[in-house]
Design goal:
Strand order of the largest sheet of chain A: 14-24-23-16-17-18-19-15
Number of helices of chain A: 35
Structural class of chain A: alpha/beta
Helix content of chain A: 40-55%
Oligomer: homodimer
Largest interface: A-B, 48 and 48 residues
Radius of gyration of chain A: 32 Å
Shape of chain A: elongated
Chain lengths: ~900, ~900
């Protein structure tokens, strides 16, 4: 028979801290503390599997589970020597949810379960404390009505407030037993009136309803939304903890509180906490009364005159200190502990690894290592890589007042505020005049680069997490919210709205690129800050990681930033961004309009010095590190002028008619540019373009070499679908390179390789590998083609897909291991077999995403490449992957596949 | 040591007819005839491998090959008792190319090789025939200078004509030895003048040059083009046949001729041929003299008064008759035989399976079976499936004069002529008035269906073999030339040009959809004709094929045509084409503009009766056969109005502003519609659309069932990328179906399945198969995504790709077995393993292409589906595949993969 219920008590404990998936975090830790011999009120945990079973059986708790619950309940009765529902000495329970990760939105807690008109009297009698008993009863009705029966929270709350007003008192503690008894009567009549049902008086009925309510709350809209945001699986389910009540509200020798073993906002080694005398747990959270500091160090402006726990119950405080030390040593991490004191006796209700800021996390990790409590390996595994974002980008001041206007995709982290403008030119102009601007566009295109660079942040109405705006913004380390579907832009009027109010050019707006939230007006931000522990910690990651971390950078500036963050080379230098500067774009357009190869070459020759200069700068910034340069990738029509003005300018400059410009534009128009005349297809049809680029790279490398720079250029040919493309283009490239070597009388080592970004390239990677020195997986495009999904168009329906759980995560954010990953793994396997010297990396946006990096590690890639501001995140993720999946473990299993979670 | 040279003679023959790949067709058959004891002048064949080696070694014939050639040459000398280059009794050679398939454009023949100023005298002396010797010499210089030295053909030819004019004669036979001797002198001086080199007099030099010229001709532009057109591999290489000369030009007892064992244009069992007295082989081909009939039955208007071979050399003729019968019986096929008679002795120079019209081929195949010469299996293997096109579509009259204007892709076979129009409305209007029109468009869209149906044929400037125009035209059996890149259209002026002359609306044009060629004016056409043998032959194919042949049809009319061609069901019924009729499109647009689900449902309810009616018609036409209906696939913006007028009409009808229409169009615009919001993504986001369609299908099925029609509906959900999409949509479909069953109080069997058209679907086919009753491979889209190649945009560079041999064939025409095929095979394998009842077919355009059908057979698909007019082709291809790859052979090898050629 399957075990659905796990008990915990000083006598018998069936769980432990490692059983979080089955018992939830709370249940696992209650079991662990029980085993440690700490004073935990006895109880039992109904497993997450029981929750799954509940949904399978159409939301019913089956007989077997009920049986196991009743058996566990009996055992608690025996231990406590009381009976649930007993009319002389009733046992009461708390019922609390607990999934494997804490999840706001789920049902939290019902205390004092088991009280009714009879048991309340027994409780009063037994404890000789009528006020306590009725206080507990009214609390129970309040909580149960709200979280189990679904009655609006404020309805009963108001009654309490009204009563206090009527009595002329401020604090609950000033009310007496009679008052509470009255309240109970009023509460019950409101429940009857509002819900059309009597408040359930049978303790067993109360229990079943409460357990069901916890299970149901797993699928609360808020919990669902939270799971989606964090990529948690909706199949996990929640556990339910049923635990004997202890009372912090039995009088002045009773209390309830929360403490942290270190300071959660700085990580400093300070024992820190708050408590309330004569109260129950939820009073601390609800903020009805101001809690007191547990010790001197916990004092602040608002509580500095209150008595500390240390003062009023020194022995209990000492016990608490001993307990926190024991727990921290046991869990080897900073703890967040909930406790209740019943008649000076300390009970522990929860412990967990404390939430903390990333600065605190770094300090705690570094301190724990120097205290000898954990190893560096353990320290490196402690921080979620994405959290480093907090260190690298400005944040909104958490204390500022905010009016949320709308939400979009959190495309590039960081807070940005400024005046809205609707085109790139205005953005640059205003920025030049010292204004802070937010660039608002339907979507961005390569033409907008200048405006994006000038803006504080970018906001778009269309496009997904790997849209142009998102990718470029991340590259620049610039905040961006993309695909805000509520955003309607009118370029003509220079206005925008999120449905109702209109915003004009120059109006202020602030957004948070880490959450996707957009706020009215200008909100203060906190600048990025890197603690002194950051360097120590990051140095540890480099010890453990197997993957190299490169960066995607197109300019010397970006290259320098990335290098300062620890990048070990450039994994993707896109050459096309270089084409958009005003002095270059004309030559590009001249090239596009050329009618003969001779004219095309003439135009390309004008571009050559620019490209060469860019490359020299990048080579210098990356002295001694490899620089992977991708030859031209986008279709030529991306470089054509869009506005009437630009077209006129071009016509004048090329001395051709506007008609000719329009015809050329028409001719170059493509129905599906993503699947069109781009990448190596340009190189095949216009070999002179790639020849010019190859020449620029090699000439630049030789120039840098002259200046004693160590240059390691890698020439990358994009969008290969067949090995013959690479064979031909490689041959042509080598011919050009040999010519340059001859002309300049000098040589240099270089590599030629390809992007693997089409399914067919992955499928035939063995043949391609014979002509390639490296593979770089372009997982953006590979995801697009494997899914048949345009990243620029998916914004309209992808949110529906993730909300219906059809796609667990946005595949442009987290690499799809099953489909896209199959192709990557296949290509690495057959590619390295065909060419053992093949060097493999990834340069898609996934190269900076921790889950995807773990996958890259497991399938045996040699490096990942990501935008400069994600390099630290990638370093940490790579180190964690290596610690989780050491080479030995992988070899032992023979296949990386079998090794996947 | 590798054998590079294979000898043939009455004494020693090293090849046979099955060695075509190594010896070429000509060499293999020369060897075969030698072995049969027929009088074949001795000689040797230099293998195709030697040709490949020649290219490998930078166009040199290596020493080993030369050694083997000289050894073989010596043997011929011994047999003929003459010596090559000998000054008393010289041996002469013919040198001819011969690849595995006959290939126009390659170097053909050099006769009389070995002659020079000395050997010509010896030949004259030895044969006592000075005229013959000098005639042979001048012929040799003429041929050698042209085909080996590359001198323009007409230069020497003119000298011959001038001489005849000077002598006042008409025929070469009227010239004497002296005349030819003079010609030789003139020829040699022209060679020296034009080429700056003396005509080579050393026989060995002549031989090496001739062999090299044959090898070089393999890469002639014309030969290359021919290979591309026919998909032949450029790596094959050509063999060279070097053979002792026999002479048809030694006098009146000599002759040369060609005969066919049956009539190549009708297939009738008539021995048939032409000959020339006192001539060499090329005279027959060159048409310098009118050849005479070999027998009474070969007489026609132009030669009826000439003497037959039967009359002038009855014994030799009898020998020829005996020989042809022997050859036909041996080869079990109609032969095309070249012979030379030297002093009444018959020599055979070539035999091969005769080229024939498809009608002749059918008759020959059926006759050979009834004559007991071949089995039905052999008969079915004799006809190339594509050739059946000749039977099914009108052709250009081969005798008509034609002025070629341009070429495009041969998108849909058949000849079409008429007046050009530039839009669908005009096409329909003019056609209504009895005019024959050609619809000329940049590209077509679903809106053009009406005009396409009204036109004789469709001509487009853009798009590839699977563009909208091509696919729809093939479906309609309507001729189409697509992607004619030279075509410039000006819609405003209603004019077009191919670079120079302008053509206006109403001008006449004719094109051949089978070749892609476009001609000026109206050219007479010959109607499609099906011989009586067609039915007999096609019935045999059905005996052997394992694959079912279904059709892609969207209307009852198409369904009926396809069924008459032998279709065994519908493999793809596209529902969206049904939406474009004027009375329906408004409801579709209303649905698109609906702001709420309620409004959307209201609009959909207007469409329901139309869809239901269509389905009833199709079910009736396909009584007893399965009908696979695909739910809505294209993105909604395809249904929006494009012209200002249509937009105004819509605005009026929906009572909304033009602004709102434009905004909606903008909102629905997609950057890459092929990768956008389409297919099942529509079903996921607007479930009511699929619900309506499913309801229409099932209601129609139940209505048809009432009329005693046997209905087998299959509901196909397109563009699945993840099994969860199918799971959800299937559940919703079943709910709707159960509702219809309940409402109408009747039930029906049905299937629900999916298209596999995205790489991810193929990769995860095992999971998808658990929710699908069938897979239909949409290889058009699968090719697009696997290659990252838009079929609508590829037209601009795909021709360059195939011409540079980067892609051996257009992957939209012939299924790419290596890449796309990998995914198909993978999906079938894991899909059938996960669900053994899974039924698999293909509905992409490849389903009608013979090579691809063979692949489908081999990987174990259950059916292919193609446009109605390709059904016979598919039936034949499927039968051939089954005969080539019987189940036993496939089982024996265990894996279909190993079994591939």
């Amino acid at each position: 028979m399957q075990q659905w219920v796990y008990r915990f008590s000083s006598e018998l404990t069936e769980g432990n801290k490692d059983m979080k998936n089955l018992l939830g975090g709370k249940g696992a830790n209650l079991a662990e503390m029980s085993s440690l011999g700490l004073a935990v009120p006895p109880g039992f945990t109904i497993s997450t599997e029981a929750c799954t079973q509940y949904y399978k059986e159409n939301k019913t708790i089956n007989e077997e589970i009920k049986k196991q619950i009743l058996a566990a309940l009996n055992q608690v009765e025996k231990l406590q020597k009381k009976k649930f529902g007993d009319k002389t000495d009733p046992l009461l329970f708390s019922v609390r949810s607990g999934s494997r990760v804490s999840m706001p939105g789920m049902m939290d807690t019902v205390l004092n379960l088991g009280l009714n008109d009879e048991t309340v009297k027994a409780l009063a009698e037994k404890t000789k404390n009528e006020r306590f008993a009725w206080d507990s009863y009214r609390r129970f009705i309040q909580m149960f009505s709200n979280v189990v029966l679904g009655l609006g929270h404020s309805l009963l709350e108001h009654q309490l407030d009204d009563l206090k007003t009527a009595r002329g008192v401020k604090e609950d503690t000033e009310l007496n037993a009679k008052d509470f008894q009255e309240l109970v009567t009023v509460y019950k009549s409101i429940v009857l009136e509002e819900l059309g049902r009597k408040f359930p008086s049978d303790p067993m009925e109360q229990l079943w309803l409460a357990i069901g309510a916890v299970f149901n709350s797993w699928h609360n809209p808020r919990a669902q939304m939270y799971r989606e945001m964090h990529g948690y699986d909706s199949s996990w389910g929640t556990a339910v903890n049923v635990q004997a009540m202890v009372f912090g509200n039995m009088g002045e020798t009773c209390a309830t509180g929360v403490c942290f073993t270190r300071d959660p906002s700085t990580g400093a080694k300070i024992f820190f906490g708050e408590y309330l005398v004569n109260a129950q747990g939820e009073d601390v959270v609800a903020g009805i009364r101001t809690p007191a500091p547990i010790n001197e160090k916990s004092k602040n402006e608002s509580n500095k005159n209150m008595k500390t726990l240390e003062e009023i119950m020194p022995e209990t405080y000492e016990e608490l200190v001993a307990t926190y030390k024991k727990l921290e040593a046991h869990y080897k991490d900073m703890q967040d502990i909930e406790f209740t004191i019943e008649n000076k006796k300390l009970y522990l209700l929860q412990t967990r690894n404390a939430k903390r800021t990333v600065n605190a996390a770094l300090k705690v990790a570094v301190d724990l290592v120097s205290e000898g409590m954990i190893t560096k390996e353990q320290a490196v595994l402690k921080i979620y890589p994405e959290d480093l974002n907090q260190l690298l980008h400005p944040r909104l001041d958490p204390k500022a007042k905010k009016t949320l206007l709308a939400s979009g995709l959190p495309a590039s982290p960081g807070a940005a505020g400024g005046q809205i403008v609707f085109n790139s030119e205005t953005a640059q102009e205003w920025a030049k005049n010292g204004k802070k601007v937010i660039l608002v566009r339907q979507e961005t295109s390569p033409e907008d680069i200048g405006g994006m660079a000038a803006a504080q942040g970018i906001l778009t109405a269309r496009g997904g997490m790997t849209s142009h705006a998102a990718v470029v913004a991340r590259g620049m380390g610039k905040p961006c919210v993309a695909g805000c579907s509520a955003l309607m832009i009118n370029y003509n009027d220079k206005t925008m709205s999120f449905g109702k109010d209109k915003y004009r050019e120059g109006d202020y707006l602030t957004f948070d690129g880490a959450t996707g939230e957009i706020y009215e007006g200008l909100i203060p931000t906190i600048e990025a800050q890197m603690s002194e522990d950051f360097a120590t910690y990051m140095a540890w990651t480099d010890k453990f990681k197997r993957l190299d971390i490169r960066t995607n950078a197109d300019t010397p500036e970006d290259s320098k930033i990335a290098r300062s963050f620890g990048a070990q080379g450039i994994g993707l230098c896109r050459t096309e961004h270089m084409f958009f500067a005003p002095e270059r774009i004309l030559a590009v357009r001249e090239m596009i309009f050329a009618k003969t190869q001779v004219d095309r070459k003439k135009a390309l020759n004008k571009l050559l010095p620019f490209q060469r200069e860019d490359f020299v700068g990048i080579f210098k910034a990356m002295n001694g590190l490899p620089v992977n340069i991708r030859l031209l990738d986008p279709p030529l029509h991306e470089f054509l002028p869009h506005t009437e003005n630009d077209m006129k300018e071009l016509a004048a400059s090329l001395q051709i008619s506007m008609n000719e410009i329009r015809e050329r534009k028409d001719f170059l128009h493509e129905f599906n540019p993503m699947l069109g005349h781009r990448g190596c297809r340009l190189g095949i049809t216009f070999s002179e373009i790639y020849q010019m680029q190859v020449r620029a790279i090699i000439e630049a490398a030789l120039m840098a070499k002259k200046d004693k720079v160590v240059v390691l250029p890698e020439i990358m040919i994009p969008l290969i679908s067949d090995h013959k493309e690479l064979e031909l283009l490689k041959k042509e490239a080598i011919e050009e390179i040999e010519m340059v070597f001859k002309e300049l009388g000098n040589k240099i080592e270089y590599q030629i390789g390809t992007m693997i970004e089409l399914p067919r390239a992955a499928i035939t990677a063995d043949k391609i590998a014979k002509h390639a020195e490296f593979f770089s997986f372009g997982t953006n495009d590979l995801t697009q083609t494997t899914y048949g999904l345009s990243r620029d168009d998916a914004g309209k329906f992808l949110p529906i897909y993730t909300s219906k759980n059809i796609y667990a995560r946005d595949p442009f954010v987290v690499l799809d291991q099953e489909g896209v990953g199959f192709l990557v793994e296949h290509a690495v396997k057959i590619g390295k077999k065909a060419n053992p010297d093949l060097h493999c990396g990834i340069c898609g946006e996934h190269g900076g995403e921790p889950n995807s990096i773990e996958f890259c590690h497991k399938v045996g890639l040699d490096y990942v490449s990501c935008s400069p501001f994600r390099v630290p995140i990638a370093r940490l993720a790579a180190a964690q992957a290596a610690l989780k999946w050491p080479a030995t473990a992988m070899e032992k299993h023979g296949s990386v596949k079998e090794n996947r979670i």
